[in-house]
């Protein structure tokens, strides 16, 4: 929830009527006091799962790093350098203040056109809470850029929630939000792209495979299971192929 140190209604309105880049520049000083920041509980669950399954990594990349919520996790998981990429200069400035570690590099760039990485490609890429800013047609460019930034065998990991149904109050909330954003973008410029229901696992899996990844998911049982026994959250593990033909990976 918002805290007393968070943005005011007027500040949120100014953000909503701006472009994505300008909106986050405006919000950045108070972003960590909003519910939009990835919760530490999610970061801890992803870190624990990656550490148990993969051990440690060489270098790491945080795609759309924002104020740096995922950078601390990468610093613990990775032995080498860690890079955060974001479109907003304001968000990167907050990340720089939060993580003055000499192993951290921060790069301002559009995730749909990632700049060339270091001479040694990354071993691990992660992303948290940013995919609503990309329309489905933009996913192939996003995933292809991450694929190019990883070494063969490198891993792209991110959490994804289970589908919600119309029987849930959350379904009506996110559907209403997405509808309001579509109306806003139809009548106001510049657009502010942020939708909650444009990143389904099936389409995401297909786009990742088309970009050259093998894909599996593992349950994040830290968040429990739904009444039908399926996990509320999964961790997507998309691995850049090592040279063999891309095949079908079974989901757990």
Description:
By secondary structure, the protein is α/β, with parallel strands linked by helices. The chain folds into two domains: 1-36, no CATH class; 38-163 and 200-240, 3-Layer(aba) Sandwich (Rossmann fold). Helix content is 35%, strand content 18%. It contains eight helices and seven strands. Helix 1 runs antiparallel to helix 2 (20-27) and helix 6 (139-149) packs across helix 8 (201-210). The two termini are 33 Å apart. The model is unreliable at 244-252 (pLDDT under 50). Keywords: Methyltransferase, Transferase. Residues 61-154 form the Methyltransferase domain.
Radius of gyration: 18 Å
Sheet having the most strands: 7 strands, mixed
Rounded mean pLDDT is 90
| CATH H level, superfamily name of the largest domain | Vaccinia Virus protein VP39
Q: The CATH topology of the largest domain is what?
A: Rossmann fold
| Element order: H for helix, E for strand | HHHEHEHEEHEHHEE
User: Which structural class is indicated by helix and strand composition?
Assistant: alpha/beta
Task: Label the CATH architecture of the largest domain.
Answer: 3-Layer(aba) Sandwich
InterPro entries: Methyltransf_25 (IPR041698), Methyltransf_Superfamily (IPR050508), SAM-dependent_MTases_sf (IPR029063)
Domain Methyltransferase: 61-154
Pfam family, one: Methyltransf_25
GO molecular function: methyltransferase activity
